[in-house]
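User: My instructor asked us to take a sequence, write out its structure as C-alpha cells, and then describe one feature of it. I'm not sure where to start. Here is the sequence I was given:
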Amino acid sequence: MALDSIDRSPPPFFRQGLSALSKLVLFGLLSLLLMSADHRLGLSGPIRSAISVVLSPVQWLALLPSRGASALEAYLKGVDEARDAAHQYQIRTIAQAQRLQQAEQLLHENQQLRELLELRNDTPGPTKAVQVLYETADPYSRSVVIDKGQLSGIAPGSAVMDVAGVVGQVTRVYPFSSEVTLLTDRDQSIPVINARTGQRFIAFGDPVTLAGSLELRFVPASADLQMDDLLTTSGVDGIYPAGLHVGRIQTIDRRIDTAFAKVHARPMAIHRGRHMLVLSPVSEWPERPAKVEPTPRPRKAAAGPAKAASSAGGTP
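Assistant: Let's start with the prediction itself. The C-alpha cells for your sequence are:
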C-alpha cells in the first residue's frame, strides 16, 4: 500500500471546530465576565501597572522621534524669529543713529547761525548770509560755490568770512550763485598783520604744504615771530576790513644760508561749516570823514627889504 494514499487529515469533528457564532458568543461572555470581575474586585489594576511599567521605555522610545522633530522645529522657528527681531532692531538702530546725527548736525548748524548772527551785528558794513552748495571739481583750484549771486547783490571781490575768520574772496558771480576762492588757493594773497607785534606781511595760498596753509613770503630771518601768533587782516588792500582773523603761525624755518625765513600759517576758517557771511567791498562802505586841514598861517613880511628901506631912508 502506497504511503501517499494514506489520509493524514484529522477527523471531520476535530477539523471543523467551533463555528464563528459560537466563538463570538463565547468570547463576548468571557469579556463581560472579566469586566464584571474587574469592576467588582479590581483584579486588573496590578496587571495594568505591570504592563505600563514594562511598556514605559517602549513608549518613550516610540515618542522620541516625534519629540526630537518638535524640538528641532521649535529651535528653527526660534532662530528665525530671533534673526528677524535682530534685523528689525538693526534697522531701528540705524534709523535712530541717522536721526541722532541729523539732530546733532541741525544743532551744530543752529549754533553756527547764532554765532554768525552775533558776528553780523559786530561786523562793520553790510553783510549777506550765504550757504555753501558744493566744492568745485577743479583739482587746481581751491574754491566753493555759494547759493547767492548777482541778483542777491553779491559783487566780485567781496570778502567772505565765518565765525572763525576770513574764508576767502568772491571771484566769480553768476545770477543765482557765486564762486568763492579760498585763502589756500595758490593764486590768492592777503595782507596780514601780527596781532602781537604789529608787523605787516603778505600771506599767499599754499595748497600743497601742510594739506593747505598760508605762506608768509619775504619775511626777514630776524623778524619777531612766535608759534601760534595770531594773524589778522591789515585792511590796507581795500578788500578785507581790518581786524579779521586769518590764521596762526604754524611753522618757522630760519635758515643760515638765506636772509628770509620760511613761515607757514594755519588758516582759521577753512572747511569749518556751511554758513558764511559775504561782506560788501570796502569801496561800497560809507566814506570816512574827510580830514580837516589846518588853516594856513599868514605869511610874515620879508624882513630884508624893510631893513634895507629903513637904512636907505636914514642915510643923509
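For the description part of your assignment, you could build on this observation: The two ends are 224 Å apart (CA to CA). Try explaining in your own words what that tells you about the chain.
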